Amino acid sequence: MVHFVSTFPPIVCGIGSYTDYLTRRFNPGSWRVTSFRLDQFSKAASCDFSNRQVSYELVHEDLCLLHDGRQVVWFQHAFGMWGKEADGFATLVANTKKNGRRTIGTFHTIHFESSETESGMDAKEQRLMGNVLPFLDAVTVFSDGARRALGKAFPEFRKRIVVLRHGVHQYPAIGLEEARENLLVYLLNQAAIPARQREQIRGMRRELMSRETVVIGNIGFVSKDKDPLMLYELGERVRRKLPGHKVVAVYIGKVQDRRDKKTSESDDLLRQLRSLHDGRQNLFLEDYLPEDVLPFAFKSLDVSVFWCKNATQSGRMAHARGSGTCVVGRRIEGIGETLDLAGLPSGVGLGDMADKIAALILDPALRVQAERSSQEYAKRYSFENQANKHLLLSEAVAGGRELPALDRARPDISFILPKLAVASSSGLEGAEDPHLAFLNVADDSDLFPRPRDYHRISLKDGVAIPPESMRAAVEWITTRILHQKVVIFCRYGRGRSASIAIGYLCSLGMAYSDAVEAVRVKRYGTAPLPGLARTIELACKAIQATPI
Which of 15, 110, 151, 173 has its CA 20 to 30 A from that of 312? Predict the structure, then answer.
């Protein structure tokens, strides 16, 4: 029996929906939910209390609960649910453990690229985890990056931290034209948008149904963190790269009515979004799409863009990937890790992202490959599969057994030469092979604990490599490669590490274009950094690299 403590529908909350999606895949008698009293949160217009496995009784001040003898109590946490400091949450977890229950916590919003702490977490996250980790038998996070951050800050609890990735929906296949037709019918007949916008959409109908029209966008709550304004700037950049296409940027969503935030905090953002709506190429439709509309709404987009200021995870991305649309996003935190794991394009800046979107539109084979990657990821991490992993973990915790590895990344190493490899940082932790030497060329990723033979040259993603850094990297590789295999790694193993490998091949006398191709053949998704050919020319003239 798993007893979840979480928000739950009819409360409008992404964490509640997540718990709902999981429990739908459980056997009826294997779960229960304790949720918040509905007056603690905004709620939907209609409330269905027929589900007797859910009790709406928890309030933020109620710090003593859950005496029913269930084997495992599983907490869902996000600061939006429990308040900015989450003191009540920490007390409830401690009391539950003291009452003899086995406890698990899923933390939906753990950062790992923050500058506030050495670990990469936000300071409030690190404080909270210090308070609750002693009382949790297991902790699950959605990304390897979050796991590394927690392990670095609290090494004594590292064995309790498990990667259990966000589930993904699986929707029936639907074509682009059918999806757009369904979305247009909804917008024209049911959406809570002004009559003026309905007329504009009706006037655009022929264009929107045309294969020459490229629609990029996103759907979901409007917030500063999601940075919807950047979508329209990205749309303008894509237009300049695709002069033969009509490019429409569209965002559909509204401000979430939350207990911990006043909707007035988003007034300025809403004014800017409304001013950008022109009814021709920039559309902002202020409506909350119901769940049954989401599959064809996302599938209506040629490219679904997730460009957040901070991006620990995105529940809406689970809908997008499940719809089979082409998903791209910002190379940051959990969203960046998820895109990389799924083999989907990500960008460091808007220019980089615009280049990749234009390439997808101009090369249909690339787009088909991206859509297929979305579908494969959706199958691998479907909510059904992830629900089964929840049960597996709860059984291990209930029995006091060693925790399963679940979704922790395996080493992702591609050998370019017999003794030279490129890798992402995920899965490399704890590598102790004495025959391997590791060169970290990322300023935003590290290993903890570090391998025995390790060196770091910090490079920024998406930025030209300084010639002196390229020279230092090639010289370090040269000192090791006679006697060891060298693994060059960065966060994703596609940009910085691949660029250094290209530089090393050029130092052996290989032409730049041949070196790029040699790395691309062995490392899918290789993306040389800007100005790499010039960097190599400046850095490697005097280097006599050791042949292999």
Answer: 173
CA 60 to each of CA 4, 26, 83, 106, 311: distance values in angstroms, whole numbers, following the listed order: 16, 27, 9, 18, 26
Name the maximum alpha-carbon separation found in the chain: 76
Strand partners, 424: 490
CATH fold group of domain 413-539: Protein-Tyrosine Phosphatase; Chain A (3.90.190)
For 176-380, CATH gives 3.40.50.2000
Q: Please report, in tens digits, the pLDDT of each residue of the chain (548 residues total).
A: 899 999 998 887 889 999 999 999 999 889 999 998 887 776 554 555 557 789 888 876 665 555 555 579 999 999 988 888 888 899 999 999 988 899 999 999 999 999 999 999 999 999 999 999 999 999 999 999 999 999 999 999 999 999 999 999 999 989 999 999 999 999 999 999 999 999 999 999 999 999 889 999 999 888 888 899 999 999 999 999 999 899 999 999 998 766 556 667 788 999 999 999 999 999 999 998 988 999 999 999 999 999 988 777 788 899 999 998 999 999 899 999 999 888 899 998 999 999 999 999 999 888 888 888 888 899 999 999 999 999 999 999 999 999 998 998 888 899 999 999 999 988 887 666 778 999 999 998 888 778 889 999 999 998 999 999 999 999 999 999 999 999 999 988 999 999 999 999 999 999 999 999 999 999 988 889 999 999 999 987 655 544 44
Rounded distance, CA 162 to CA 146, Å? 10
Contact 139, 105 (CB under 8 A): yes
Q: What is the pTM of this model?
A: 0.86
Segment holding 90, helix H or strand E: helix 87-98
Find tokens 């409830």 and name the residue. Answer: 92
| Residue that the structure tokens 């980089």 belong to | 352
Strand partners, 447: none
Q: Cα–Cα distance between 427 and 405 in angstroms, integer?
A: 11
How many other C-beta atoms lie within 10 A of the C-beta of residue 534? Answer: 12
Query: In CATH terms, are 2-163 and 413-539 the same topology?
Result: no
DSSP state for residue 15 in the 8-state scheme? H
Q: Where are the domains of the chain?
A: 2-163, 176-380, 413-539
Nearest to 387 by CA among 10, 7, 137, 20: 20
Instruction: Give the 3-state secondary structure of residue 24.
Output: coil
Centroid of chain to Cα 318: 10
CATH number belonging to domain 2-163:
3.40.50.2000
Given the DSSP bridges, would you call strands 413-417 and 420-424 parallel, antiparallel or unpaired? Answer: antiparallel
